[in-house]
Design goal:
Alpha-D-Glucose-1,6-Bisphosphate, Chain A, domain 4, 4 helices, about 35% helix
Length: about 200
Amino acid sequence: MMSAGMFLDGTIQTAGRRRIGAAVVTVLLSLSLAACGSSSGTRTIFPDDDRRETGSDAYDVASEGSVFGPSGLDIFGNNNTPEAATGGTGIGVNAFLWRATLDTVSFMPLSSADPFGGVIITDWYSPPESPAERFKVNVFILGRDLRADGVRARVFRQVNGDGDWKDAQVGDTTGIDLENAILTRARELRIAALN
């Protein structure tokens, strides 16, 4: 049988080990952070090249562009770079298809939109003329090129029966019709951008 004294000694020893461990971690973190700082007597010297400002040691950060490349991140495709003319921007999908998809499904509430992955998911929408049914759309933009196979649309439909929403059949061509509407709008946007 364990006595109360043995239990307290074990607890005190465990607490002491935790304090020592915490102190060691704190000292190591302090030393590593101190190593990151610069001492007041040293100067940073950058490599000699064309990007350095003349007459000083300051590095010209503006010459490097940004993390997203020389033209930066422009999700709306409004810059004047050659990439913008073809619909390529800092996002991972074709900008014209992205904007066309948003325009085409703008009457439905959006659940999520990921411009880097090219996924647009709407929330359920009930048309005013038929409140007993509702629709949901998932659109996937598959690449950076404006091509007919660059967009896929999935349409889901539910009908309200006895207070419960139940899945219902969607027309065979509904998804294809939505894809064609998106492609038509994307072509209109591209023609407008090139003029």
